[in-house]
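User: Structure tokens for both sequences below?

Assistant:
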Amino acid sequence: MISAFCPGHVSCVFQPMTSFDAMSAGSRGIGIRLDKGAHATVEPRDDGIVNIFLDGVQSVAHITRMVAEKLAPGMGFDIRITNDLPVSQGFGMSAAGAIAAGLCIAETVGKTRSDAFMAAHSAEVMGGGGLGDVSAIVAGSDIPVRTVPGIPPFGRVENADFRISKLTLAVIGDEMRTESVLGDQESMRRIRDAAMTAMDVFIADPTYECLFSVSNRFSSESGLESPAIRRGIQRLNDIGRNAGMCMLGNSLFTDADEKEVWSVLGRGHVRTFRCSSSRKEIIARRA
């Protein structure tokens, strides 16, 4: 059995970019690489069947399944993924699980880390998952700035020169399906226009304060910000805390501590997760 951990990722700003080549497709954007993420274990099977369990429940998990098919076509595996954070809330769990499982499979069949990363990126792009999470995560920096879309070396990811030691993620609503947003042409136009401005501003001033500022501007101008998200950000701002919307989820990231979030948003109406930014390396290990 081989195991791996992969950090999650919050996109604060994203600008979807298409390409005929999946390796060059994805998004430009700004994000936070997290110290919480997805844990995967992989055991080979001799019958060609791929079983995937997400948080103990058997699942289709089509993106992780695509990774297995790309790295080891025709081979069977038992893949178990345990997530530190909720799925479909903008925390990059789909990408993290695909990367962690992909590294385990690559180790099993004698392929490289690069093979695993590229398979995960391709599966995310082709399977309707996050468009930039894989490239941001594998870059290994606290605050990855995706200046050129695609997985490196086809894309380019730079690092803003700061970290966030105390961060609270707050889920305030139901799951948001990425494909439902990215499949709407008018939504995509607004997102691209808002992201272009936000990226220009942040690249000119890549600071902690600017990260929250451009995140708020982007979520508002893109039309992605729901009334509940808007109220949550404002209430946290009112007590002197920074907050922004996690892309794409009914969730917030904030430098307020959990007790402050509970007092402002209501403990019975929010799920919180304490974390920080992270440069932790992604490593597969044999049990």
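Moving on to the next sequence.
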Amino acid sequence: MTVDEGYIKYSSDWTPGPPPDAATTELLNRWRRRLYAARLIGFYDDLKIGYGNISIRCHDPGQFVISGSQTGFHAETDGRHYALVTECDIGANRVSSTGPVQASSEALTHAALYELSDDINAVVHVHSTSLWTKLKHRIPTTSKSVAYGTSEMAHEFQRLYRETEFPDFRIAVMAGHEDGLICIGETLEESAQRVLRLVEQPR
């Protein structure tokens, strides 16, 4: 695990503001609790950094609510731990957001995934050593040379969506982001349940 894991690599245009919509953050919290309990979202004690993030699309085009940067160590979260992403420019590697915290370091990747299809309404990014090791190159997998949180990773998921079974399988492994997996779905429940079921399967 490299020491820059979990840190923002895009150009962040963040405006401090109030928490996002309460009903949206409560829905996110409901599923984040289960992912945290399964250790799919959490905190690396040795590196002192959080991992994993979760988001849901908003009604306004191009906007979504996502967990904030470095919030993984919180066992319980509320509206203070989420940001509203208002605009993303993948080519310019720039994310605009507002809220009590800056958007997750993976916000650019989430934005790229939402651009793939109107049917994608939720994105869950988790960490699991066992699933990452077991599923790497057995299911859609990003190139090992592509780092997390960059415009290159955003383009890599676009490639997976075009060239692999990612649109149907809806889970992908991030080979260049140790332990990282991405799940997409029409609903947040679908996205979260998909990876939780994998954890619950016999090894």
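User: Anything stand out in the second?

Assistant: Residues 6 and 105 are 6 Å apart (CA to CA).
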